[in-house]
Amino acid sequence: MLRLYFFISLMCLVKSDTDETCPSFTRLSFHSAVVGTGLNVKLMLYTRRNRTCAQVINSTVLGNLNVTKKTTFIIHGFRPTGSVPVWMEDLVQALLDVEDMNVVVVDWNRGATTVIYNHASSKTRKVAIVLKGFIDQMLVQGASLDDIYMIGVSLGAHIAGFVGKMYNGQLGRITGLDPAGPLFNGRPPEDRLDPGDAQFVDVIHSDIDALGYKEPLGNIDFYPNGGLDQPGCPKTILGGLRYFKCDHQRSVYLYLSSLRENCFITAYPCDSYRDYRNGKCINCGIPQKESCPLLGYYADNWKEYLKQKDPPMTKAFFDTAEEEPYCIYHYFVDIITWNKSIRRGSITIKLRDRDGTITESKINHEPAVFQKYHQVSLLARFNQDLDKVANISLVFSTGSVIGPKYKLRILRMKLRSLAHPERPQLCRYDLVLMENMEMVFQPILCPNLLM
């Protein structure tokens, strides 16, 4: 065993020109970040032929790159400690899983590694110039701009935009993952990512109140959880380094989830996050036969529809769970009450299936207003999607700690799935909810005349 270990160790020391070692992303220390580094861009190619061992390529050596296939560039952002992006390998492999393409990792860690953000930001246009020279050579070899796809993270999103500008917006697609806000907020289009930088530009904004860019930058701009605090991320500085970067990085992990078959996140075009939470945008603003846009890799399914808009831009909102795969399942809870007086409060709803699995939604972002014989439609969001609901429970609360306890008299409650509109809608009639007391019941199928 010791001899085998020694032999493997020797193999790892073989020089790269024998093609027996694998080039890796540049690893730098915090010392490098303090003293600063000069820019050096390294391009590493992965394909299904060499998906675990990169080839270093440049404008004179294209390696295994097949110019007849899609080429996806992954461009990282600011690296204040010099470390390797923890998500990079997963993103490379997930892209190769979904499509036979060229994946080029743009390693500009020598340049992005610095404790002074301004120094990294100042190098973004220089990185774009390097990429322009490489793509020019790809075009000479027969590649098409239509097949060029750039995924830029933070500063990398603006680098992708600068490259797109050099080709007058003819790149196939750019995805911006929480484009950097500091030094870019409020800048004119020529100084940042812009919808005109590619034939299709989609953006995920996950940290608009700190490290990310707030305003729309693409043809479709996705705002998970309103673009602010992301579920599962630390809320205070006691969370350490994660407190500063968790919201910002969530855009990458949401994009990664779109490449896996266990979760396709649906987003809802809307004017505001509040309107989305109030259930005003669940039909996507288009005929029901059209599906709502999907977050991430398949967002370009909406490309042709957006071309018909003037301007061809929209914002889309959605909520996520705290952990991977992040999917939330939407239902409408329709309630008709018969109280004489108006009641204001929140509703908590739990669903339980026959196996005992329970999922809960608290609809408490703002008080709902219940009036006699008026239907109130509340958007409920669950972490799990239960196919067959055996029991439902409801809790009504006014949020008042002191004072009288109120009743909510429900004439009819109806539950309907947005993700699966073909499922039978579930109803219950003549319920009286005592404030802060859970009412558990078995639903019945709604009759057709009430559907």
Automatic annotation (TrEMBL):
Catalytic activity: 1-hexadecanoyl-2-(9Z-octadecenoyl)-sn-glycero-3-phosphate + H2O = 2-(9Z-octadecenoyl)-sn-glycero-3-phosphate + hexadecanoate + H(+)
SUPFAM superfamilies given in the database record: alpha/beta-Hydrolases (SSF53474)
Keywords of this entry: Calcium, Cell membrane, Disulfide bond, Glycoprotein, Hydrolase, Lipid degradation, Lipid metabolism, Membrane, Metal-binding, Secreted, Signal
GO terms of biological process kind: lipid catabolic process; phosphatidic acid biosynthetic process
Pfam families in UniProt: Lipase
Record family assignment: Belongs to the AB hydrolase superfamily. Lipase family.
Protein name (record): Lipase member H
Species, as recorded: Neomonachus schauinslandi
Chain's gene name: LIPH
